[in-house]
């Protein structure tokens, strides 16, 4: 058992159930240690929540860097970005940790809220940069500002994940991804 095991198991629980729907007892049963051992590493659930969100943000950031290293084409970048969400829902019926925690935002401890906000800022900042490149090159012919469009894309994908999970239909998220591609080309 390591700290990594605790954080990874907690991540899975939150992505499946939500932050408020799991306890240290649930976690201890899955990891195979006493709750006191979890408290040793993470004195409060908020401490664990921050560790989970930071790990998730770091992993997502690595994925965005991989996209940047894979392609300089803004259309392909957006497709690969959407594919990150699609892969999550298709392989596990779990949702993005950022989206799950955002749905419980008002009940989260402040330090967890800060990490959730940072996740969304990271994503919108990356998307804004990609959209600027796409607009400058003429590939994206949408009148929205890059910032507004980035917000729309994140919101659509997060909402699409929830709908796909609700209906047990990953195709709903794929449909959202297709609509985003049409939006970027100026099709309505």
Note the main attributes of this structure.
188 residues, mainly alpha, Tetracycline Repressor, domain 2
SSE pattern, N- to C-terminal: HHHHHHHHH
Distance between the termini: 52 Å
* Helix/strand/pairing category: mainly alpha
Hey, roughly how much beta strand do the residues contain?
under 5%
The major pleated sheet works out as: none
Uncertain spans, ≥5 residues at pLDDT below 50? Answer: none
Query: What is the number of beta strands?
Result: 0
Helix content: over 70%
CATH fold name of the domain at 54-184: Tetracycline Repressor, domain 2
The fourth-level CATH homologous superfamily of the domain at 54-184 is Tetracycline Repressor, domain 2
Describe the structure.
This protein is mostly helical and 188 residues long. Helix content is 77%, strand content 0%. It has a domain at 54-184: Tetracycline Repressor, domain 2 (Orthogonal Bundle). The chain contains nine helices and no strands. The chain starts with a helix and ends with a helix.
Q: What is shown here, in short?
A:
This protein is mainly alpha-helical and 188 residues long. It is built from 9 helices and no strands.
Helices, strands, pairings?
Layout lengths: L2 H15 L6 H8 L3 H7 L3 H26 L3 H19 L4 H7 L6 H28 L8 H21 L4 H14 L4
């Amino acid at each position: 058992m390591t700290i990594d095991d605790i954080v990874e198991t907690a991540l899975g629980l939150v992505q499946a159930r939500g932050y408020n729907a799991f306890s240290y007892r649930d976690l201890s049963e899955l990891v195979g240690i006493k709750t006191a051992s979890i408290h040793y590493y993470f004195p409060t659930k908020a401490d664990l929540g921050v560790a989970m969100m930071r790990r998730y943000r770091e992993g997502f950031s690595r994925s965005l860097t991989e996209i940047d290293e894979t392609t300089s084409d803004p259309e392909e970048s957006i497709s690969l970005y959407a594919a990150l969400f699609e892969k999550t829902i298709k392989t596990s019926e779990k949702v993005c940790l950022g989206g799950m925690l955002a749905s419980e935002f008002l009940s989260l401890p402040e330090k967890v809220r800060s990490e959730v906000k940072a996740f969304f800022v990271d994503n919108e900042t990356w998307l804004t940069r990609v959209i600027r490149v796409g607009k400058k090159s003429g590939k994206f012919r949408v009148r929205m500002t890059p910032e507004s469009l980035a917000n729309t894309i994140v919101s659509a994908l997060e909402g699409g994940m929830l709908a796909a999970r609700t209906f047990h239909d990953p195709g709903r998220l794929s449909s959202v991804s297709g609509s985003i591609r049409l939006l970027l080309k100026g099709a309505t």
